[in-house]
Every structure is written in C-alpha cells, then in structure tokens.
Automatic annotation (TrEMBL):
Stated name of the protein: Threonylcarbamoyl-AMP synthase
NCBIfam families cross-referenced by the UniProt entry: L-threonylcarbamoyladenylate synthase
InterPro entries: DHBP_synth_RibB-like_a/b_dom (IPR017945), Sua5-like_dom (IPR006070), SUA5_domain (IPR052532)
Organism this protein belongs to: Elaeis guineensis var. tenera
Domain YrdC-like: from-to ranges: 87-288
Single GO MF descriptor: double-stranded RNA binding
Gene that encodes it: LOC105049693
Length: 313
C-alpha cells in the first residue's frame, strides 16, 4: 500500500510542480512586460540660474517669461562694437530683427530693448520679456520722415499763427530727446496696449527718438521700419542697467535674442518733452539740455507767451 502510494504521490507532486513552474513562468513574463511607450510633451525651456548676479527670480517672471526665438541649444547673438564703422558685424543682428527677434542695442543715452515695429508678435514678446504690460512703448526713428509717418508730426506753422515747432526741433535731432506726439493710424496698436486690449486701444500719443549714436543709426539704416523700444532696467527696480554683459546674463534666460555691446553707459536718460499741449513741456529732464523754447510745469504763463519759436512763426 505504501509502495503503491509513493509513485502516485510522485506523479501528483510532479503535476503540481509543473503547474507551479508554469504559473511562475507566466508571472515572470507578466512582471517583465514593459509598459506601452507614450509620447511625452516637448520639454519646457529651463531657466538658467544667474550665478554672477545672485539675483532672486520672481515666480511671476518664471511663469510668464517669453519663449526663445532660437531653437533649443542655440545661444543669443552677442556683438561687440566700438563704433558704427564696423557695420558688417551687425549683419546677424539685423537678420534676427527682421525675423522677429527681440534684443538690446545702445543709444546715445542708455541701452534700449528693441524689436521690429512691423512685427506685432515681436512687440508682444518684448512686453513679456520686459514686463511692460501697461506702459506705452516708444519708437526709434531713422529720420523725420518716420516721425511724420507714425505720428502727426511737428507743426510747421501756418498763416493762422501756429508756431513752426519743426524749425526748432530739427536743431536738436538727432539727439538725446524723446518727443511725445499724437500717434497716426500707421502706428501699431500694440505700442499702446498689450494683447487683446490692443484691438480696442485708441492711438493717442507716442514717444519718438532719433538717437545720435553711430551704432544705433547703423542698425536703423539697414531696416525697413523704425524700432519699437523701451529702456532696459533691473527687474522689479526702477534703475537703468548700464553694463551689456549683465544685461545679457539677466535677460537671456527670459527670452532675449541678441545684445549689441557698445560699452558701459552712464545713467543719463533722454529728456522727455511733451508736444501735445499748447507749449512744448519738459516732463523729464535728462541728458538733453532744456532749450529756451521749452517750458516746465508750473512756469509762469507770461514767460511762455514770449517763447522764441512763437515769435519766429
């Protein structure tokens, strides 16, 4: 009896062992089964830390920073210039501007962040990089013809006694002045308001400049339109950034495409003159001296009536 049970037990044990082995193999196969590959979204652009500046980044800036104009792995264009004589060095910068890039160039005062006036998407990128959501932007013009195109221009005088302001202004441009003039219909509304708000914005006034800087003029003369601009300041600080190397380190992670290095500048911005009222009024004294045909707020009205350009009209 015992000898008869042993073979049967061995057979039973063999069957059980075979079943266990089969089950163990299947479990092993199942456990090694790889998951179905899924297409992952393209990686987001990482913001590089700024070690040299030890600048604490605002989470808002990280969230709303503009995408890079260049492809991943490509660096911004950085050109060093002494004067505008070596204009061939500016060819890659001019190419990037025409293709919609946003960058920084020197002027006769401080550095300016610029883009092509005809590229509405570039203007929006400039606002995101600089966080200029509410302030109107200015334009860097090549000549008085640009000013006449995108604004109503400077009054030339008439028989009804309108003063010939143009005669006075043409002696200080090119120069370190920003003149605020009524905007024309040719000015993109994105210069006044950002995003969807630009669709319903009213073109009122715009600041215009013709900088007396050889590098800036070399760039402007090779473009088909003026440049939209805003001064370059420290993020969250009302202070101008004057060193192009620091500007590049600070704003390249934010999406800046190029920097033209014209040397370290002095914190001396342009003089802003409002030309939309009855008299040219200085609203910010800067590098440009106040001329005898300009007034300041609070000046005696009797003195305003004796301005020289009024007598010369």
């Amino acid at each position: 009896m015992l000898s008869d049970g042993i073979p049967g037990g061995c057979a039973t044990s063999a069957v059980i062992a075979a079943g266990a082995l089969s089950l163990s193999f299947r479990r092993t196969v199942v456990s090694l089964r790889l998951p179905t590959p899924r297409l992952s979204p393209p990686p987001l652009r990482r913001h590089l830390p700024i070690h040299a500046l030890a600048l604490k980044r605002n989470p808002k800036r990280l969230k709303y920073s503009a995408p890079r104009f260049f492809k991943n792995g490509e660096r911004m264009v950085y050109v060093e210039m002494d004067t505008g004589a070596d204009s061939w060095k500016l060819e890659p910068v001019i190419k990037v501007i025409k293709e919609g890039g946003v960058g920084v160039i020197p002027t006769d005062t401080v550095y300016a962040m610029v883009c092509d006036l005809k590229s509405h998407s570039s203007i929006e990128r400039l606002r995101r990089i600089k966080e200029e959501d509410s302030k109107p932007l200015s334009i860097l013009c090549r000549s008085f013809q640009d000013i006449d195109t995108y604004t109503t221009g400077f009054p030339r005088g008439n028989a009804q006694g309108q003063p010939n302001i143009f005669r006075a202004v043409k002696h200080c441009l090119p120069g370190p002045y920003t003149f605020i003039l009524p905007a024309s219909k040719q000015l993109p509304k994105q210069c006044i308001k950002p995003g969807m708000a630009a669709k319903h914005a009213t073109r009122k006034h715009v600041g215009v400049r013709i900088p007396d800087d050889s590098i800036c003029q070399a760039i402007l003369q090779n473009l088909d339109a003026p440049l939209v601009c805003t001064s370059v300041k420290w993020p969250e600080k009302d202070q101008w950034m004057l060193d192009p190397v620091i500007i590049a380190d600070t704003y390249e992670p934010e999406g800046l495409d190029f920097v033209v290095d014209g040397g370290v500048r002095v914190a001396d911005p342009s003089t802003v003159v409002d030309m939309t009222g009855a008299y040219p009024k200085v609203i910010r004294q800067g590098k440009g001296p106040r001329l005898d045909w300009m007034v300041v707020e609070g000046e005696d009205t009797a003195a305003q009536e004796e301005l020289p350009f009024l007598q010369a009209a």
